[in-house]
Every structure is written in structure tokens, then in C-alpha cells.
Give the backbone structure.
Amino acid sequence: MSDDPSNFDPSCSNDGRVGLRVAIIGGGLSGIAAALRLSWAKDREGRPLRVTLYEARPVLGGLTRSIAHGALTLDTGQHVFLRCCDEYRRFLGEIGGTDEVFLQDRMAIPVVSPGRAPAMIKAFSLPSPFHLGPSLVSYSYLSIKERAKIGLAAVPLMRVDPDDPANDNVSFAQWLQDHGQSPNAIRSLWELIVLATVNVPADQASLGICAKVFRTGLFESRHAGEIGWATLPLSELHGSRSLERLNARGVNVVPERVVRSISQVGDEWMVEFAQESLSGEPADAVVVALDHRAALKALPSDALSSQNEIGSLGFSPIINVHMHYDRKVTDLTFAAALKSTIQWVFDSTAVSKVADGQMLSISISGADDLIDKRTSAVVSEFTNEVPKLFPRAAGAVLKDAVVTREGSATFRASPGTGRLRPRPRTSRRGLYVAG
């Protein structure tokens, strides 16, 4: 196959010939991206592929979606990206979404804490990795001694090979302790980034995965860590925009189709559905773009070399609390929080289509302690927490609050998970995994 778009002319009928049939299971970002890439590809006979995308939900986007709440539109979670996320930014360009996101022109992260003035972690006009030095030297949540020791970990971390299996087996927090970082420095600086990106605390996170985050996102380029987010609801950006683009590329998108299993019959694959009234669909190749739990149920038992262990990846949950106040309670667009059960908070007023007051979206990663808590208890907890960070909220009226939960938001990136994550190719010809 060729995935070079220049090899495919969408206006060419190819003399009526049609190419190999490819089924993609899962309409999240990885499934959409695979379908778009394959829509440009041809088989060995030079024929455009016939791509079908099956999605269990009514809309595309996977976990990056929105829900309707009265007149409001709420994203299920505050999804952000960094300038270094080249593939995602290329994806945005492919679906025509580049102008529908905000992206900082210089990394700047406000950090708030009860009873203290906000601090700022930001990039300066210096070569990387020195661009963060001035803000870390004055970072008020660390003691002078702790600030002086940041380099004891930052410099060696730049030399850690994320792909070395030995580094995958080490806890990031233990590695930081071994390199002179105090518990407060880990909690107030390093874990601020780890929780938001890896979705587990530093003491549960793989050194290899964290090294990749810090090297690519902060150390290798002054601009890499600039933060971006969608300026319209995710179901419009990832859902509607993707569907329009897929339709234009000739991809057959089939929503509300739950795949039960994939089996090989001779030279063909058969995609079987959970709906008993539906017969199976044949394909010449299949891409499974599901989370590891769903993929294990669908894949043949011998498709992956580590298939019996993949279930050990586990999941790490995320919850989001959307709080609608009757007035503006903070001028910050977003902030990270310390010494609070709040981790990150975003002003989502515009994207949620709030007509009055202010909507704050609070995002909690690694939310094991909250995921099963009653909604009323979660709302009560954060109603008490918000005024500690933003005093103006004490005089505001909370008009509404909504809690969204993703119990299986990401795999649990703990030490040892690197060897469990499969590569795209499987042991079966014509069967691949993505995401």
C-alpha cells in the first residue's frame, strides 16, 4: 500500500475498479486518523481502498466528545494539546480544524494555591532547555534550596532513554528522589505536569513514559510546551468536522455498530456485530482502534504476542466538574492548582455556550478516589474548594454543576507497562491495532 496523498486523485474513477476492503473498528481519534490516512492509499493494483469505519456511538470522537445539558454544551473533559503534538495538529489540518483551536505563542502556566498569589511557570526567550530557568528560579512554591536542586533531576532526565526497558520498570517519583528532589518539589512541580499528561501520580508512573513527556514537551524546544485547546465543542470539532472530511474522502462511516468479534475465514476477515439482526461484514484487512479491554474481546486470541498480559495495563480515570456561576469569579483562562483537591481549572464559558456568568471546568486526573463518589458529594467538595483558589466565588451563586466521568480514560502508565503495549502489526496478516 501507499499512503502518499500525491498518489491518489480523488476525481479519478480508476476505470470503475475498486480496491481492497478495509474495516476500521472504533471512531475515536486513532480510528478517524487511520481512516483518513487509508482514504489516500491504494492497493498493489493501484486501486483506491474501500474504507469502512464502524463506531459504537451515534457520533465520532470517542472519549473526546460533548454532551447536551439544557441549553449548554459540555465537553466530557477538558482536552488540551501541546505544540509538540505534531500528529494531532496534522490531524486538525486534515479535518479543517486548525482555525478552531487556541494555541499559546509562549508557554505560560498560572499556578494557584489557597491564600497565595499565583505563580507562573513560563518560557523565556532563551535556548532550550534554559528557557524555563528564570521562572523556575523564582517559583515561589519551592524553597530556595529546592529550586537550586531542580537541575539535579532536569539535566539527567534529558539523557534518559524513554525506549530503554530498564527505565520503563522504574517509578518516576523514586527516580526523582534519587536525584535530589524533595517530596514537596515532586508534588509542587514535577507532578503538576505528570498528572495532567500521564494520568497517574509520580509514584505510580513509569520513568520511561515521563521522560518522553518532559523531553518532548519541555526540554527539546522552547515552543514545544505551548498549550492549546478547542474553541468549539469537541463533538463539533472531532465529530462533525471529521465526519464531513471522511464523507468527502469516500469513507463509509457506520455509526451505532457495536463489533463483537473479528475472525479470519480463509483470505478474508469477518467483522461480526453485537446486534443479532445484523450479519457479518467481510474485509480484506482490519484496523482495531479500541481501548485495550474492548480490543481483547474483539481480537482473535493469538493476534498479539503479549495478549494474555495486556489486561494488566488497567485503566486510570478522569472526572470533570463543570460549575456555572452567576458572575465571573476569575480572570484566568486556565490554571493549575496546588494544595487543593482541584488539579486544573479552565474557563469554558464560551465553548460551553454560556450566556451569563462564568463556567469553570475542573479536571481531575488519576481520579481513583472520586470516580465512584456520589455526584452530590463531588459537587459539594468542589463548591467548597473553588472559593479557596478564587475568592470572588465566595460571593457568587452556583447556578448549576455537572459531573462527567471517564472510568477508562487512559491505560494506567505504571512501571512495566511499556512491554505490554502492542505494536501496530499483529501475528495475523491484514490485522492491525491502533491507538
